[in-house]
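Form 7-S
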Amino acid sequence: MIFDLIKKRRSVFPAQYNDRPIAKSDIEKILEAANWAPTHKKTEPWRFKVLMGESKEKLGLFLSYKYLETETRPKQVKTKKLIENPKRAGAIIAICMQRDPLESLPDWEEVAATAMAVQNMWLCCTEMGIGCYWSSPGLIKYMGEFFELNDGEVCLGFFYMGHYDGEVDQQTRRPIGEKVDWME
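Output:
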């Protein structure tokens, strides 16, 4: 049932991933789910760049070098994490948004549509038993140096994916009643 799937969705991080590869056909299915997200004025702003194999390692090296280049007091632990996390992932999907060239709607609506596409991916991964999470480090502002981005296209983060062993932690939420005002 969809409510159970939504409650089961979790962030599963690269440190939890095992070495089992993710089939390209599974990634294609996940991306197809993303493509059915709602989109105002049918702009379909989501764009994805799938990194597998050596391209994951190249991303890690780029991020670590960019971090060392831009950080005044770089931390060795963070540099190592930037290198290692991409290697641990079965695949990484760069989450990009292509701005409507006519700017016929506000930027936030394009970001929201892209985020809904990612939620579809996340739910699909949950159903398939693939761990994932959306990382949006400050370094994404430099991704135009790593990827060929079109005019008006921006990188919003990385969707790390990997198979994992065991269970993920249960989460709780404060009651929805604390977050809703009923007006009649």
